[in-house]
Design goal:
The chain has about 80 residues and is mainly beta. The chain contains one helix and six strands; from the N terminus they run βββαβββ. It has one domain.
């Protein structure tokens, strides 16, 4: 579809001193779903949780599709 882009992202989470999950780093945009899953799998031993997800979006009009979880390991916060 014209104007739509597929965002593919990997994010990791750690626990802070109070036990709350916080991002370990900013979202890393990936080129393919396969590379996102691979990148997430390489992070599982270093973080409380990791997730690779994708979403189609049309930034020109502010539309976003549903989040699709490609890979998840450990503890991650809920997101829409």
């Amino acid at each position: 579809m014209p104007g739509f882009r597929k965002m593919i992202v990997v994010t990791a989470f750690d626990r802070d001193a109070d036990g709350r999950l916080e991002p370990a780093f900013g979202p890393r945009q990936m080129e393919t779903e396969e590379s996102a899953v691979y990148a997430a799998q390489t992070l599982i031993n270093d973080h409380a949780g990791v997730v690779a997800w994708s979403r189609e979006a049309n930034p020109a009009v502010g539309e976003e599709g549903p989040t699709i979880i490609l890979y998840q390991h450990g503890q991650i916060p809920e997101f829409d």
